[in-house]
Amino acid sequence: MTTFFQCIDNAVAGKVLKKKDGERLKADYRRFREAHANNAAGSADQLARQDLLDDLAAQAAHKRRQAKLSIASAQRLDADARSFRTHGRSDIGAAFVDTLEHHGTGAQFSSVVGRSKSILGMAHARMEDLLYHFRRGAVRGDLGRHNAADLRNVLRESFGVDTGDVRARELANVWMSTAEWLRQRFNAAGGAIGKLDNWGMPQHHDPRALRKAGMTAWRDYIKPLLDVAKMRHPLTGKPIAEKELDDVLAGVWTNVATEGWAKREPSRQSFGQGALANQRAEHRFLVFRDPEAWLKYQEDFGGGGDIFSSMMGHVSMMAKDIAAMEVLGPNPGGTVEWMKQVLTKEAQEIAAGLKQGTLGKADAGSALDAAAGYSRKLDALWGSIRGELETPVNSRWANILATGRSLITSSVLGAAAISSISDAGTSALARRFAGIAAKGTALDIVKAFAPSSRRLAVQSGLILDNAAHTFHAQARYVGTLAGPQWASYIADRVLTVSGLTPWTQSAKHAFGLAFQVELANHVGAPLKDMEPALQKTMRRWGFTDAQWDKMRQAPLHEDQMLRPVEIANQVDEKLAEKYLEMIQTETGYAVPDSSHQSKIVLLDQNRPGTLIGELIRSGAQFKSFGVSMVFLHGMRIHNMIAGGEIASGAAYAGSLLVTTTLLGAAAMQLKQPLAGRDLRPMDTPAFWGAALLQGGGIGIYGDFLFSNVNRYGGGFKSALSGPLVERANDFWNLTAGNAIQLASGEKTHFGRELVKFARGNIPGGNIWYLRLAWERTVLDQLQYLADPEANKAFKRQQQLWKREYGQDFWWKPGEALPGQ
After folding, report:
1. Where are the alpha helices (DSSP H) in 214-290?
2. Which of 462, 456, 458 is closest to 131 using CA atoms?
3. Using alpha carbons only, what angle is made at residue 90 by residues 87 and 94, rounded to the nearest 5 degrees?
4. Does the CA dihedral 189-192-195-196 come out positive or negative?
5. What pLDDT digit, counting tens, does each position of 604-659 carry?
6. What is the value of pTM for the model shown?
7. Is residue 349 a contact partner of residue 355, using CB atoms and an 8 Å limit?
8. Are 248 and 233 contacting, i.e. CB atoms less than 8 angstroms apart?
9. 3-class secondary structure, 558
10. What is the pairing mode between strands 89-90 and 473-475?
């Protein structure tokens, strides 16, 4: 040992080896030497040196493989960027942005987001039997999953415990085969996750819990729970000796507790969690001795023992990581930095007059600004994709304010399902544009509610949204439902029982299924003989004649569909995922939802837990859908017109405007009787202006066209600043405001204001089929008790609606029953 350590010290002194690397080699040698302590001294030294050599050789081979993959990805990305054209111009900045996320408007290569969705869809297809068996309850959601009791046996079977439960074994095999498929994809992209039989489930480590416990206490806690005999070095595959376990666990604790920073040295380069290829291995490195040990650890140090969420969270994260590595290389964060440097170099050369025409319209005078703008967008977009945009700076304040937004969602969006009927219009328009038969669009959406249709959709590679967002819930019109689980759960339940979430899922599935049916109808002809609109869609996504010829060799599903699943199993997996990426992305036009690019339009890089971040989130609440509509369809129209298709662009814009306005009008009128009012007169510009905005997802602003109050009684400034600020102002007026009025001898209306505050802030009180009866039979009667002038207030309310909107009430405010 002494001679070996002297060699290391000499190498460090000669600057052949860095000091930290020398210390690491010594520590590794000591660890290996300790594992062979029972052997004779000479033999132990020799075995330790061989173990160290094997370890170093495996690390070197892994790094060489990663380096080759990194070089290959950089070459591919550079070639894609330089061949990319937008409106006839070369624009490598736009190409790099599209590499992270694009919407099928020009780029013919995969994006990180698109690839992630296609991998996730294929994973869900593999797991459909499990997803259906443990589907959400209709009312209680995650807390009332079907067959929830079976999860324990699935967990045990995954650990190799024979429970005698045949069904649980089948479902465990579904889970393990999917996890193995993801492991192989991850490793092929540059990772190093070792294979383990009866691995069980992935572990989630809460850094805060580990820091609170401390290294020694955590290590003493977890050691008895582990099956050390099954633990292996990720690269060499050699077993972990019992004697080296303490050092190994110390390394795991340090890495998790510091979130990877202990292994890094501060530098001038920006970086995040390090190369993705070097992550995820800890989910298999620590092997628990049995399912009960795994469950105990998850409950105490993993943030909870939800077995289903652990499975689905792992699938979602792996899909995201695999996509990032396959598109950007083993170190995607480093590749994003490389992109920014390429942009800077291009801009500097353009500014110096050495080249031109590689940054779109940018010339010598604007190239540096263009490059800086693209670099900022890359940072924001990558941060959003990786989830950093939702990582709080101050967790305490972020959780408090996120709770407020979730509760507001649960008390305001109970009628959003009616507004979403506009999806039938955008779906029909998206179908026509893509070359899919648009007849019967609304009926297809209704049919997709059937459990059999939903199962077929998931089996066909279409994502099941409620299984994809188990850690960070997503909500239409809202975006991320962050904060404490109980608050986001309430919001999720309101959006579900009101019908918005099921309608959205059905509309997405209906479009995806229709796409696969349409392609099946054309398998008998080559690509060049397809109908023009469908052929154009295929070529816009980069499908060649030869690729289509391969795709149509796949057998059709019995429902006459050309599915990605059959293409993947019998023809070409990558071609199938490209096909699925096209379907998933085009679905975004049919059922507009929040995207990363639309999110950063609202939030930029402002994270929760900061003053500006929270103010922006309050102002942006309920505006994400409108931004997505403008971003997606506006971008499509712009590209058509800029590309010389002026007539087509104008026709598309006209169809969108007319369709969404008419359906917006229908939604507005449907809401009137549900609120106790007669239909709104339709012969005024105000009505049609409001209908236009309603169809675009920002209907509340239609109230201001010819009125100074909105439907909730607030003004334009309140609506613009967001409901959280508005609610805070209402609460202040209710409490401190009334106290000040009382102290000043002024007349207060505390009772009336208290009931009014309750109307807008009770979760579920706004659900469209319950709201009217709830307000008339409960809240209005409470107002009579709390407000001596309740009758006058109700009459003023009727006069307001008559004056501002020309409407009478069929069930008047204050009446316990209609027509009293």
Report:
1. 215-222, 245-257, 282-285
2. 458
3. 80
4. negative
5. 888 888 888 888 888 888 777 778 888 899 899 998 998 889 999 999 999 999 99
6. 0.89
7. yes
8. no
9. coil
10. unpaired
